[in-house]
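Lecture 7 notes: from sequence to structure.
We start with the chain below.
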Amino acid sequence: ASFTLITCGLLETREPQPPGQTSSTFVPPTSPNLVLTNLINAVRERNTDNYIRCFADPNFSDKRFSFVPTQEAQSQYFTVFNSWTLSEERGYFENLKSQTPSIGTTGLFFSNEKFESIQSDSALYTSTYNFVFQHNVSGVPQEAKGQLQFFMATDRNRLWMIYRWVDLKTGSDFNWSEMKGRFSK
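Predicted structure tokens for the same chain:
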């Protein structure tokens, strides 16, 4: 008997990742906390695909993603938020990224976090947030602050995702809804 050894290049040196390609630290969200970790990493890494993977995927869930903006942003950007879907979420994030220099800082920070309820297949997470994106659009704040509610559930693969996102204004701070409205086009 003869044996053929196929190595598939396992021991060869590989090319370093070219600049411009985004790194990825997405882990299968087998718990609600992992969805939050993935979201934080996706923002920091500016990885649109991983960002979108944190939300309800119609291919794997009967739930549809919905975003509920602050009342002020709903009034100011009525036509934008009137039909906000996962596609608009992707478009806003891509547009925001395209307006941000490669050296600009990005980050998402949660505080006063609390799971209001956790069931075997659903959870409600509330938090104060600080969303930083050092874009280069003058006259638009680079930091958004507010409170949010993430309604989370498991999909058909038993992986967790956010299906409803409610943004709440705190004081006079520029909030995430306003950031989305501003970068939606």
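Points to note: Strands lie at 66-68, 106-118, 122-133, 143-154, 160-168. The radius of gyration is 19 Å.
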